[in-house]
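The instructor's notes for this session suggest beginning with a concrete chain rather than abstract definitions. Hand out the sequence below and ask the class to guess, before any prediction is shown, which regions might be ordered.
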Amino acid sequence: MNSSTISLNFEHSYAEHLPDFFAEVKPTPVQKPSLLQFNTSLASELGIDDRGLTPELVPRIFSGNELPRDARPIAQIYAGHQFGNFVPQLGDGRALLLGEVIDRQGKRRDIALKGSGRTPMSRGGDGKAAVGPVLREYLLGEAMHALGIPTTRALAAVATGEPVMRERPLPGAVLTRVAASHVRVGTFQYFAARRQTEHVRKLADYVIQRHYPEVNEADDRYLALLQSVVQRQADLIARWMLVGFIHGVMNTDNMAISGETIDYGPCAFMETYDPAAVFSSIDHAGRYAYGNQPAIALWNLARFAETLLPLLGDENSERAVADATAILETFLPRFEQHWYNGAWTKLGLADSKSVDSLNESECALVDDWLELLKTNKVDYTLAWRALADFAEGDESPLRSLFKDQTGLENWLARWTEFQGEIDPSRLASTIRAVNPLYIPRNHLVEEALAAASNNGDLSSFEALLSVVQHPFDENPQLARYAEPAPMTFTANYQTFCGT
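After discussion, reveal the predicted structure:
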């Protein structure tokens, strides 16, 4: 591995402030790096001057074969609850943080490699990644970003020119991930489990300065930190669910303290509305099903709160526990408010209200709409979008989705009453502005990843990527991207972690 003359203006606040929280590791060189994708818009957002990044240099840099001269690769340490079971040491088993950049908005962002080889935290793994999972994370991150959901994103995907062994040999790849930071609930758990209270305090102080500087003014800054993290997670999970997203593996090591979506493994977008929907091949009991995500987020946040108890006073003191519990109890009300307000907006009715919280009859309209979708086995994404056509007088797209026309008719009468004086064309445009037509449909994702992995053909991937980057803009020529997966596909569809 060589050092490049290229500089990316890296800073290293994590390594400098938290010297015991990582291991310094060099990426493992790969045989024949070649570029799969480079995110030019994200590079511009990060303030990366790509004039020196020649087509020959880009795959070498973002495979780890040739590092920027100011890079300092480190593997971060963390623990985590995986499917409810605590693992005291996890960490970056195949990822390396190269450094941090200050983007054009003045925000600090991590740039990290994923799939760059073994680290001290690999736990017997090969530290590598395959083309399919790398491109899945690239695609899903861009889709979520286009939907306005806080998320990590991919700067580059590079093929390594060498195989990785999973159930069968697969072509290898390295992802370059950009994140607000990679601090997780599990990062706090690692040091709390070892009763290293001062390390927990250092980490909390770092997180406050990086992500929540406003809490410095609070009477109890650590309690205020907990409250801020709880609020961001409540908002994030509501945003996920409003678009039908299922993370698939909400372990505590996969919950970012910053409030971004992180670690796109066995994730998927729901098709037919079903709160029990699970696509992950490893989630046998449905712990991380679509409808369970708020409760799991709260469970994870309770584990975070436990790590902060020594900073709130004696961790066994009734006051510390009571204060933390009171903060945790705000999660579900906050989530529900964000969820119902978001659903009300998706129904096109935001202009009909002047207060933040929905009343009982308004919540019932939302709940009954979801019940209709469930009992009629309706596609979640198309149902919301078809309300715009109905508002403009074209009833067929909506009615064709439902078997129970009487139930639909009764609900539509109530929906119409809530519209008041809203102009139909304004109502339709409002609905289309917040309800995507195009999501990463699971059959299209698998089709694109299979072509890229098996045949080296990126055309399907690039076409799908282009579509999901503009989820609200209808184009009749893209009709196939809005169609649900065939039932024969959905009935047995599973996603995999890819590690």
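Then share the key points. Residues 221-242 form the longest helix (22 residues). The chain has a mean pLDDT of 94.
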